[in-house]
Write a structure and sequence with these properties.
The protein is an alpha+beta fold. The chain folds into 2 domains: 237 residues, CorA soluble domain-like (Beta Polymerase, domain 2, 2-Layer Sandwich), CATH 3.30.460; 35 residues. It has 9 helices and 6 strands, in the order ββααββββααααααα. The protein has a 6-stranded mixed β-sheet. β4 and β5 form a beta hairpin. α3 packs across α4 and α6 runs antiparallel to α7. The longest helix is centred in the last third of the chain and has 64 residues. The radius of gyration is 35 Å and the shape is rod-shaped. The relative contact order is 0.09. The mean pLDDT is 84.
Length: 306
């Protein structure tokens, strides 16, 4: 059975790695939870929410989780039952951070006393604070990646690899925002709920988490603006390169046009063309026209029209 329990005085923290029939039977036997909540914990990807009941709260939180293989940010769901003398955390898929927090509280007496010496609401605050603060590392890595991409762009890299990197960075920023946004309102609402295990003194603690999430949101806004600006910059540089190539090809085509026309005329079998019977003068005419075109190209290049 994937159930682990820590006790400190009257307070009990139950951590469940995954929900199966045995774990579900444990919850039904020991707690009087609403059947809709028990149905919710059996399915993943629930919308973040708070359900308030007379004797307990049911909460669904999402935390950003970095996947190294796919280089994407996905939500990791944690369902929570919060009551007067208990806190139950239910994970959908194993979370290394959650596991570390639980065993840290279990093995470290000082941490256990600090986290569980008050009521279950304070324990909830410590868990949420730790999990949300741990997401800062993901955000910092995203910032470093954006800076690296920016340096590559201004170093001359505007190929498909850079465009793909920008797309990955933009996807991760949007994914992070999509996860964090509902949590801001969830924590803000949590600070206004009044229960025996959520007294007025805890409002300051949950407001602190809400402020931290707002700071993350502000950083994400900055990253989003940076990515949008870099995307516009890359498009401008690529368009400039394309226009330059088109300009060169246009000049080449226009430069060859007079020579092509002249060669077409003298390629006809007409006896009365000027210098038709003097090959030297005809070649001089071609060379003179080529020299004139070359001089025009050099003048245009000197004036930076090309």
């Amino acid at each position: 059975m994937a159930i682990k329990i820590i006790k400190q005085g009257d307070l009990q923290w139950v951590d469940i790695d995954q929900i199966n029939d045995e774990e579900l039977a444990f919850l039904k036997e020991n707690y009087n939870f609403h059947h809709l909540d028990l149905e919710d914990i059996q399915s993943e990807s629930q919308t973040p929410k708070i359900d308030v009941y007379k004797n307990y709260l049911f909460l669904v939180f999402h935390f950003p989780h970095w996947q190294h293989l796919t280089r994407t940010i996905i939500p990791h769901e944690v369902d929570i039952f919060l009551g007067n003398n208990f806190l139950i955390t239910i994970q959908h898929g194993k979370n290394k951070d959650m596991k570390n927090f639980f065993y840290r509280c279990m093995r470290n007496k000082k941490t256990k006393k600090e986290w569980m010496n008050q009521n279950s609401g304070f324990l909830l605050y410590k868990i949420l604070e730790s999990l949300f603060h741990n997401t800062r590392g993901i955000l910092n890595n995203m910032g470093r990646q954006i800076s690296k991409t920016e340096d590559e762009i201004f170093a001359g890299g505007q190929d498909t690899k850079i465009i793909k990197e920008l797309a990955v960075d933009r996807r991760n920023i949007l994914g992070f925002r999509r996860i964090i946004d509902p949590e801001r309102y969830l924590v803000a609402n949590l600070s206004h709920i009044r229960k025996l295990f959520l007294d007025e003194n805890l409002s300051l603690y949950f407001d602190d988490i809400a402020d931290y999430l707002n700071k993350l949101w502000a950083i994400l806004d900055t990253y989003k603006d940076s990515i949008d600006g870099l995307h516009v910059t890359v498009e401008s540089l690529i368009n400039q390169k394309t226009n330059k190539v088109i300009s060169v090809l246009t000049v080449i085509s226009v430069s060859l046009l007079p020579l092509t026309l002249l060669s077409g005329i003298y390629g006809m079998n007409i006896d009365k063309l000027p210098f038709a019977h003097n090959p030297f003068l005809v070649w001089m005419m071609f060379l003179g026209l080529a020299a004139f075109i070359t001089i025009l190209i050099l003048i245009m290049k000197k004036k930076k029209w090309l």
